[in-house]
Amino acid sequence: MDNNSEILFKGMTRPAMLWGVPLIALISSVSVIALIAAWTNFLVIFLMFPTIFVLREIAKKDDFIFDLYFLKLKTKGDLKTMRFWGANTFGATSYRKTSPKEQRLDIHGLPLSSQPDFSKFIPYSSHVAENVIITKEGDYVATWECSGIPFEIADDDDLERRKEQLNTLLRSFSHYSVSIYHHNVSRSVSEKLEGNFKSDYLKEINDLYYEGLNRSKFKRNTLYFTLVYRPYPSVVERRSRQKGSLEEKKQELNYHLAKMQEFCNRLEKGLSKFGGKALTTYEKDNVVYSQQLQFYNYLLTGLWQPIRITTEVFYKTLGNTLNHFGVDTGEIISPQGKRRFFRCIEIKDYVDSTYEGILDVLMYYSIDYTITHSFSLLGRNDAVKALKMQEKHLQSVEDDAETQLAEFSLAKDDLASGNLAFGKYHFSITVFGDTVQEATDNTNEC
């Protein structure tokens, strides 16, 4: 193992399995069959054996296949819309059901009111400060744009030191209900310097130069760091918050906003080493725009454009495209009719160790992509419980991964010493292309 590499505790990334079936799916299925047998006929209990066989065959494709099925069920669109488009489809605008006469103003036979929109998937509600947005659930969100560090010319010791500084910064938030999102956005841009030339000859040379550049693609890699503070992490806390008076809600808002700004100041100081700059609101031609919304809208639509702040809540105004989600490829249609395709990649199995710059090679690819890391920090007590529970699950089902089981002792020791912080992690890459084939080829290149 390389000196700068670190153990990736794979035992925490795997579901506990028994007879080749994820434990939760197995217990749920057996419980349902047992309940049916208790209410109908005892012989129904024998359905457990073919059920376990079918579940095991399904799980051979992916240990998390049942989680994906559940996610698919949660994001399922309108059946009428799916039959019309041939794919799960969501639009930017919601339409109310009106009179039968007005319902004839549909799109080729599909009533506009049956077209699902993005709003239920968009959490953002409104700006409560220039750099902070509050969500529908009462979470506070702030984002920084980071230029990063020139990893190609930095020595290994410097990269290791920067990594440790960032890790220490993140561990300092482990006592709070905080989540971190990191995005690496690679997109095509057109670069041009505006110049005033007194000489027509020089102006012609300049125009010819940039005309040649416009025929080439420039790629810009930008890093974004998002902090999410959840003062009400549980459903019970969120419901109790809704029962308070208006004055109590204002006091809570001011208190948690002050707490969020404290977190922002701490994080911004740490990110300054990476060229961090907070995304805020700005004014242009007497109109207020939001850099945060501009970034979030890009994640949703793949379009980079200014987003103005209106009196409407953000989850009803973000997203101005029609998005189709097929079996393995999606399509984005802009208001101008431009079509763009995308595919998503998730990690099925993690490596045994990781190191700084493990994904730097992707920056050399001439493709548009968005890499997303999400990490929801757990407090030390919750992390210890999660470690012990996962270790117990793997031991109880006699899991063969002895090395991974042995690593749990090291994980608990590092956690108790404050050298590590644990949390819920997710990773994905969204790869874009102007055609289905280009999106497929770009995905294979990654």
Automatic annotation (TrEMBL):
Q: Which InterPro entries match?
A: CagE_TrbE_VirB_cntrl_dom (IPR018145), T4SS_VirB3/TrbD/AvhB (IPR007792)
Q: Which UniProt keywords apply?
A: Membrane, Transmembrane, Transmembrane helix
Q: Does the keyword Membrane apply?
A: yes
Give yes or no: UniProt keyword Transmembrane helix: yes
> What GO cellular component is one of the record's annotations?
membrane
GO molecular function list? ATP binding
The segment(s) forming the CagE TrbE VirB component of type IV transporter system central domain are 278-446
Q: What subcellular locations does the record give?
A: Membrane
TM ranges = 16-36, 42-59
Pfam families hit by this protein = CagE_TrbE_VirB, VirB3
- Report what the protein is called: CagE TrbE VirB component of type IV transporter system central domain-containing protein
Organism name = Rodentibacter rarus
